Every structure is written in structure tokens, then in C-alpha cells.
Amino acid sequence: MSALVTFENLTKRYSTGAAVDDLSFELAEGQVCGLLGPNGAGKTTAIRVLLGLARPTSGSTTLLGVSPGAPGFGNAVRKVGTLIEGPALFVRATARQNMQIEADSLGLNRSRAKIDDLLELVGLKDRAYTPCGSFSLGMKQRLGLAISLMGDPRLVVLDEPTNGLDPGGIVEIRQLIEKLPERGTTVLVSSHLLAEIQLMCDRAAILQRGKLIADGTISDLINGGGRAGYSVRVDPSLVEQAAATLGRVGLDSVPGDAGGLDVTGEIGNGKEISQPLAQAGIYVWELTPAKADLEQAFLRLTDESDRAKKVRMEPVSPVSADPVKEAVNAV
Q1: What is the pLDDT of residues 164-186, one digit of tens each?
Q2: Exposure on the CB side of residue 319, measured as CA atoms within 13 A
Q3: Domain boundaries, position 57
């Protein structure tokens, strides 16, 4: 599969610091890829640079094989659908009229049947003649997604498409996104909602404070390179001693439900937990595999990143540095 999107050592700095810091990853055709991280992680900035809306401080990006500012970038952008920070709709115009306005602005000759097909895809065909001012937030997001598909794009870039939606609206948008590869459309979707990324995406790139800390398929990220998870219950008076015992054999543990411990590390069938505890005179009351999910993986990865950063930042000797100049602002 060819890469539709590349980020290569991308850095974007402002006067307050780096919004994106040495970001490198690729998005292959036919995937739904999540750009995951908390608010302020650099997701929107990375997307703005990718679309040519901001200039990088250093590094580069390509969109459909073309870099921003290079000949042909305008044509590449026209093959990309976007929904960034909510759709820009004419509230007095109907859903159909908003679709036609988008088609005209792109120089597309879109038939009534084409518009009907897209409105049906997003579940708005029966509201085609309703002014958008009366739409709920979820309906507006669905119409925005339909508009982003007007040009039959090879790639759709969605920035927090479920932001502000109720649970029903979130499910609707997720189900629509999942269908897009069947129509030949690759998807890059940014979000801070871990559960939604896990459900809708094939893979994810996880950002923390502008840096890429993990990139891979959802299953690989959850599995964590073979680090399994277990929930263990022991005598409540021995929980702290159990945690210390497991720590000495290289297993991480945190307080879990019902006074137990959630344990992660290189664990096979669980004997790596029960054996050292028994040798320390701590007998396991209950040992069950923990249900792995992206939230647990995210917390583990961000914690590991923080610990690594803390080690790197240990002072060795005082140094001086010139202040970093602010890069050219978004165009």
C-alpha cells in the first residue's frame, strides 16, 4: 500500500514552545487511522501543516505524494475532503442547497442522484429540504461529512468529528467513518476519545505534548509488545507488600478494584505473578486476565514516556541556549 500522508521529522514551534515536536509517521491507502492525544497534544497543528494552513518550523509533510507549496499541491488538496472544527454551513440554506454550494465551489457537476446518495449515506435524505439552522449538532456534523465527500476524495481528514455530540451522535459518526474505506476513501481522524478510536480505526498514532510516543495497529498498541495485564486479589493487609514483591521481579502494579492490584508486564499464564507472591508468603485469592483496551495502553504509554523524559532531563551541568525564534505563522 502506498502512503497517502507522510510526516517526516515535523516540528512546529510558536513563542510558547513546540506544538509538534519531531513527528514522523505514514498513513497508507485504505486505512482508518486515528491521531490520538489529549487536548493540546498537537493533533490540530499537525493537520494544519499537512493541509498547507500552517508552515512547519522544520521537517516536512506530503499529501498524496506532494509537499505544501510544491507544484501540484493545490490539485492534491482538491482530492482531500476535510471536516475541521465543525462544518461551515449556510444556516438558511437547506441540506441539499449546502451540498450544491460545495459542488459549485469545487467546480463539480454533481447530479441530484449524487447528492441524494451522499445524503442517504449520512442519514439525511429525508431532511434534504430542511434549512440547516434547525439541525442538531449531530445532524450538522453528518451533513459536514457528506459535504467533505462531494469530490469523491481519496482521503478525508476529520478533526475531532464527534466533539460535543451526545452518545447517539457519536455512534452515528463512528458508523459513517467505518464505511468510508468501502467507498475507496482513506481516513485520518483526530480525537481525544480513546474508546472511539479503538472502535473505528485500524491503527493509531499517539501524541503527547507534540511528540509521537507510539504508532501501530490498534491490537499492537493494546497488546503493548507482549505486555499482558492481570487483576490479582490478595489479603487486603498485604496489598502494599504484594506490589513491592511484584516490582522486584519487574512487574508493574497499580491499585485495582475491590482492594486488589492491576498488574502488567511480561506475563504468560499468570505464574509470573502467583509464584513470587507465594514465595514471599502472600497467597493469591483471585487471579484473572484483565480486559485490555486502548485506554489502558494509552495510560501505560504516556506513563512510560513521562518516565523516560524525566530520565533524559536529569541535570548534568548548567547549559545556556539561545531562545528559539518563532516560526512563520499559519498562512
Answers
A1: 788 888 888 888 888 899 888 99
A2: 8
A3: 3-79+153-219
Domain count, the chain: 2
In a domain, 138, yes or no: no
9 and 75 together in one domain: yes
Last residue of a domain, one of 190, 219, 248: 219
Tell me, yes or no, whether 301 lies in a domain. Answer: no
Cell of 17: 514552545
State the chain's maximal CA–CA distance in angstroms. Answer: 77
- pTM of this prediction? 0.71
- Strand, helix or coil for residue 224: coil
Q: CA neighbours within 13 Å on the CB side: how many for 180?
A: 33
Task: Answer for the pair 28, 205: CB distance below 8 angstroms, yes or no.
Answer: no
Q: What cell was used for 265?
A: 508486564
Q: What is the pLDDT of residues 91-124, one digit of tens each?
A: 999 999 999 998 888 787 777 788 988 999 888 9
Would you say residue 128 has pLDDT above 90? yes
